[in-house]
Design a protein that fits this description.
Structural class: mainly beta
Distance between the termini: 45 Å
Number of helices: 0
CATH class of the largest domain: Mainly Beta
InterPro entries: Arrestin-like_C, Ig_E-set, Vps26-related
GO biological process, one term: intracellular protein transport
Number of domains: 2
Strand content: over 45%
Largest sheet: 6 strands, mixed
Shape: elongated
Family: Belongs to the VPS26 family.
């Protein structure tokens, strides 16, 4: 217990459980440091937390406080009534089915975002019998995943074509956007979350030297209520796929792993949305930036399914 009086151990080492199964574990209480208590309770709570960015405060000030958390699951268990603790380490096992509390909202997967977060926590409270003994509490977060979809996966490839002919040349003093053409492909915009995002990029023509080419994963979070919605895009991660002035007509591989916690299967509900995009960002030595966004959809697929 590492010197702690109260601790929570989950049965899964990676703290990951699937919706529909039971989250289980053991509560450990060191009775050598606490002789009595006034009741031991366990609370399981799953919540969607939403907030608006500060730049939307003015436009949405009227309903800013109306975006309330959404309770997905809530359970309370009495593990032990008031009494004395044995002069050793007390072990209290628990098991709670992971089923939604309300039919209106399913159990969404764990997700840590900027303006939308989905979290599942277990809290244990040991009530003290007197003011001097005090209360004890311990909280642990576990990760929830939905069962993978057992479907035949069909990739949805997309061709990449970014060229100067598709935009109007803009003059900034003596600087003019150079002539360029970038091609390639994305292997699939329908992306199993446990598999890498992949493809290739080819710089066929570039009228200026390239400083770097980056691949950015973007989260697009929409949240609100009947009074209005706010939509914000923020960066999750940035991966440099090339540095310097790359060879022309040379395939540059695209390969990215979706980070745990900060991604989840794409969600679209009446109260909020969690969507994702990939941004190809080409920075030139003359400080021009060429960027193109590609919406993607994340799904959880049975690992037995193959491409």
């Amino acid at each position: 217990m590492s010197g702690k009086v109260l601790d929570i151990h989950l049965d899964h080492i990676d703290k990951t459980f699937q919706a529909g199964e039971c989250v289980s574990g053991t509560i450990l209480i060191d009775g050598r440091k606490r002789s009595s208590h006034n009741g031991i309770t366990l609370t399981l709570k799953g919540t969607v937390l939403m907030k608006h960015s500060s730049r939307n405060t003015g436009a949405f000030e009227a309903f800013y406080n109306s975006v309330r958390p959404i309770d997905l699951i809530f359970h309370t268990l009495e593990l032990a009534p008031a009494g004395k603790l044995p002069s050793t380490i007390l072990e209290l096992p628990f098991s709670i089915p992971l089923l939604p509390t309300a039919e209106e909202f399913p159990l969404y997967e764990t997700y840590h975002g900027v303006f939308v977060s989905i979290q599942y926590n277990i809290r244990v409270d040991v009530k003290g019998r007197s003011f001097m003994s005090g209360d004890l509490s311990e909280t642990i977060e576990f990760l929830l995943e939905n069962p993978p979809r057992n479907i035949s996966f069909k990739p949805t490839p997309v061709d990449i074509l970014i060229s100067s002919s598709a935009i109007d040349s803009v003059k900034k003093g003596a600087n003019v956007i150079p002539k360029f053409k970038i091609t390639g492909k994305i292997n699939s915009t329908l992306c199993p979350i446990t598999r890498p995002f992949s493809g290739e990029l080819v710089v066929e023509e570039m009228g200026s030297k390239i400083r770097t080419i980056d691949l950015q994963l973007i989260r697009v979070e929409t949240c609100g209520c009947a009074d209005g919605f706010s939509r914000d895009a923020t960066e999750i991660q940035n991966i440099q796929i090339s540095e310097g002035d790359v060879l022309r007509n040379f395939p540059i591989p695209i390969y990215m792993i979706f980070p745990r916690l900060f991604t989840c299967p794409t969600v679209s509900s009446k109260n909020f949305k969690i969507e994702f995009e990939v941004l190809i960002n080409v920075q030139l030595e003359n400080n021009h930036v060429i960027a193109e966004r590609f919406p993607i959809k994340l799904i959880r697929l049975d690992e037995k399914e193959s491409f």
